[in-house]
Amino acid sequence: MQPNGSILELCQVVRDIDGAVAHWTQVLGAGPFFVFDVPVLPGQIYRGAPTEVSMRVAFGFSGGLLIELLQQTSPGASVFTEMLDDKGEGYHHVMMRGDYDAGVARLGGQGFDMAFSGQMPSGERFCLFDTRVGNGGYVELMELSPAMEESLQRMHRAHLAWDGTTNPARTMAELAEFAA
């Protein structure tokens, strides 16, 4: 896994997650992708106000880099529609590996605004800082619990074992096959 301070994930915002999975697997060789629906998560804040964003996401590795494909499924403004409306599909954010509170202090201290935040059902906090002025996208920070780290390791094992064609889109339940 990536060391602290490095980029763990690259996220692409898309309008058609099935088409994006097909592109990333067939053209770029990433995958397989684990696809699932994310309901409105607790405590979501968008640009200082409560919001309700749901999405469909797919996670798969390309070498040691986690690729996230994200399609918003709820109506309304968000950091995801900001990018889709401004530039269309494509690069949205990177996620940094490291201590959540230290990352928030560092990015906030550099003058970047926290544009979106919330928490996972299991309690891990996440946020996206608007860093478009410097990198054309956002930077995500997330608390990575041992359970989340195990899921990442299973996805990476699936990537290493994948033949490049069989079952490119999978359910999260299929991660159980890749336990250590």
Structure, explained:
With 180 residues, the chain is an alpha+beta fold. It has five helices and eleven strands. It has an eleven-stranded mixed sheet with strand order 4-3-8-9-10-7-1-6-5-2-11. The protein is globular, with a radius of gyration of 16 Å. The model has no long low-confidence stretch (mean pLDDT 96).
Short summary:
The chain has about 180 residues and is α+β, with helices and mostly antiparallel strands. Helices cover about 25% and strands about 35% of the residues.
Secondary structure blueprint with pairings:
Blueprint: E1 7-13, H1 17-26, E2 33-38, E3 45-46, E4 49-50, E5 55-62, E6 65-72, H2 79-87, E7 90-96, H3 100-109, E8 113-119, E9 125-130, H4 132-135, E10 138-142, H5 146-161, E11 169-170
Instruction: Calculate Rg over CA atoms.
Output: 16 Å
Taken in chain order, the helices and strands follow as EHEEEEEHEHEEHEHE
Stretches with pLDDT under 50, minimum 5 residues: none
Number of beta-strand segments = 11
Oligomer: single chain
Largest sheet, in brief, is:
11 strands, mixed
Ends apart, CA distance between termini: 15 Å
Report mean pLDDT, rounded to a whole number: 96
Global structural class: alpha+beta
Portion in beta strands: 25-35%
Question: Please, how many helices?
Answer: 5
The helix fraction, in percent, is 25-40%
- In which order are the strands of the major sheet placed? 4-3-8-9-10-7-1-6-5-2-11
Shape: globular
